[in-house]
Amino acid sequence: MLVATLSKRLLRVGQAKRCGLSLRSFSDAKDKDLVLTSIDGDTGVATITMNQAPVNSLSLEMCQAITTAIKEVESQPEIQSLVLASSLPGVFCAGLDITELHKPDEKRLTDFWHSFQQIYFDLYGSRLATIAAIAGHAPAAGCMLALSCDYRIMVSGAGSKKPSTIGLNETKLGIVAPSWLGYQYIDTIGQRQAELGLSLGLLHQPEQALAIGLVDELVPREEVLSRAQAEAVKWGKIPAKARLASKMLARKARLDHLAATRKEDNDFFRSFVTNETAQKIIDGYLQSLSKKKS
Ligand SMILES: CCCCCC/C=C\CC(=O)SCCNC(=O)CCNC(=O)[C@H](O)C(C)(C)COP(=O)(O)OP(=O)(O)OC[C@H]1O[C@@H](n2cnc3c(N)ncnc32)[C@H](O)[C@@H]1OP(=O)(O)O
C-alpha cells in the first residue's frame, strides 16, 4: 500500500485517526484514489501523491481531486508545508489529459479549464510552503504543477538511458501555453531561457533543467521523496506570515491578473481548442501517443 511506503514514520490511516491526525485519500465519484494525502505525524509535513495511472494526466476529476486535497491540507492550521509527489514510477505528471481536449463537450471543457486554473490559484497561491518531488517526466501542465511549488527537487539523469524531462512543450504540439503559465516560466528561469524554451517547446533533461534554474536540486531516484520531505520540514520552520508575505511579493500580481481575467481566459481556451485546426492537431497527437505504444 502506497501510504505505508511513503515514510517509515508515517502513520497508517487507523493510527492517524486515533492520534487525531489526518491520513486520507480523496476520491472521485467512482471512488478511485486519484490523489492520496498523508501527514507525517512527527514532522507535520503533508504529502499529496498523484495516483492516476498510467501518467497522472490532468483530467477534470484529477484537477478537482488535487484542489480538494490542497484545500483539505490548508484547512489544518498546524500544517505549514506540503510535498507534491507522484506514485507512478517515471512520471510526475504528463500534463493536461489530452482526451479532455478531443471532440469536447462545451460545458465539460469550460469546467475542465476552470479546474485547471483553480490548481494555479490553490498551489501557486498556497499559504503552505510547497515542495515538488519530481521523480519522473513533467511536460507542459506537469511542469506547471512543479512551477507552482516553492522548491523543486528532480530525479537526476546521471547514468539513465532515458532521463526524465521537464518543460513547456506546447508549441511542439501546435498549441500555446496560456499567458499565466508563460509568465510562471519567465519569472522562474528568466526571459531569455523562457523565450527559447517556449518557442522551441523544449523538454529539458534534469541536468539542463538545473543549469537554467527550472529545478533547484537533483538527487537519485530513491531519495527524491525523502529529500523533498526534509526540505519541507526546513521551509515549514520559517515564520509562516513572513514566508507567505515574501511569496506574495513575487506572485500576487500574477494571481490577481488571472482572477480578473479568468472568464476571458476560459473563453479564449474554449474557442482555441474547439477550432477545427486545433482539433486536427489534437487528434493527430493522440494517435501518435497510442502509435508509440504499438
Ligand atoms: C489555448 C490552448 C491552451 C493549451 C493548454 C496549454 C497547457 C497545457 C498543455 C498540456 O499539458 S498538453 C499535454 C502535454 N503532454 C505531453 O505532451 C506528454 C505526452 N505524454 C508523453 O510524452 C508520455 O506519455 C510520457 C509522459 C513521457 C510517459 O511516457 P510512457 O512511455 O511512460 O507512457 P506512454 O506509453 O507514452 O503513455 C501511457 C498511456 O498514457 C497516455 N497518455 C500519455 N500522456 C497523455 C496525456 N497527456 N493525456 C492523455 N493520455 C496520455 C498514452 O496515450 C498511453 O495510453 P494508452 O496507449 O496506454 O491507452
Distance from N terminus to C terminus (CA atoms, Å) equals: 31 Å
CATH architecture: Alpha-Beta Complex
CATH topology: 2-enoyl-CoA Hydratase, Chain A, domain 1
Helix fraction by DSSP (H/I, runs of at least 4):
40-55%
Q: Count the helices. How many?
A: 11
Q: Which terms summarize this structure?
A:
294 residues, 2-enoyl-CoA Hydratase, Chain A, domain 1, 7-stranded mixed sheet, 3-stranded parallel sheet, disordered N terminus, binds ligand LJEIAPTW
Your description of this structure?
- It contains eleven helices and ten strands.
- The chain has about 290 residues and is of the alpha/beta class.
- β2 and β3 (about 45-50) form a beta hairpin.
- Strands 1-2-3-4-6-8-10 form a seven-stranded mixed sheet, with helices on both faces.
- The protein has one domain (about 1-294): 2-enoyl-CoA Hydratase, Chain A, domain 1, CATH 3.90.226.
- The protein is about 50% helix and about 15% strand.
- About 40% of the residues are buried.
- The structure holds ligand LJEIAPTW.
- Ligand LJEIAPTW binds next to β5, β7, α10 and α11.
- Belongs to the enoyl-CoA hydratase/isomerase family.
- Homotrimer.
- Pathway: Lipid metabolism; fatty acid beta-oxidation.
- GO terms for molecular function: delta(3)-delta(2)-enoyl-CoA isomerase activity.
